[in-house]
């Protein structure tokens, strides 16, 4: 049913579909229509890509990590050539347009954790992120406080995520950019001996592959984290 709004004269008008169109939305529409007009891509290309992006999720990355845990040859490939390894788990970074997505044409680096080394990823400039593997980035990943604080006080910020690492574990922060993407390969947790690749993939959450959580038996989804004031907030943002 179409919603209507009454005016003082008794006439009924269709309610606006959106409250406000932002400057960024106006710019996107203008740029998209110009690109279509110039033949850079078609409206159908845009539709297919939009549908592709909207259905992205972290499942491919979870399969990637689980396979690396159980297959030494695949793990070696993953550490040497992340893009080639992605194809082995069904992720073609050129899909579906044939000419690339915003996460194409990059060097994918797989960061292997050890019992004494823990990686965490960030994009200090914006929100660069391996979307074909991890899906769309979470909102907190794009916030100025995370981007600026994780490189300054990584141990404290990880503690705010509920990840408390002993001082004996080195924390290494890797900064993504337009040419380089990262995926964390966490240590396989104890208590998963004999598990199948499918069972292992279930406990590899998005946060584990960013590095703000560790995989644990029984934990199959990212924790819904409450918002709270930072102890050392990034100022002027």
UniProtKB/TrEMBL annotation:
The answer to whether the entry has keyword Hydrolase is yes
List residues of the Nitrile hydratase alpha/Thiocyanate hydrolase gamma domain.
23-213
Binding site residues for Fe(3+): 123, 126-128
**Domain of life (superkingdom):** Bacteria
Gene Ontology molecular function, alphabetical: hydrolase activity; transition metal ion binding
Q: Which UniProt keywords apply?
A: Hydrolase, Iron, Metal-binding
Instruction: Tell me yes or no: is Hydrolase among this UniProt entry's keywords.
Output: yes
What's the short name of a Pfam family annotated to this entry? NHase_alpha
Q: Which family does it belong to?
A: Belongs to the nitrile hydratase subunit alpha family.
Name listed for the protein in its UniProt record: Thiocyanate hydrolase subunit gamma
The organism of origin for this protein: Mycobacterium bohemicum
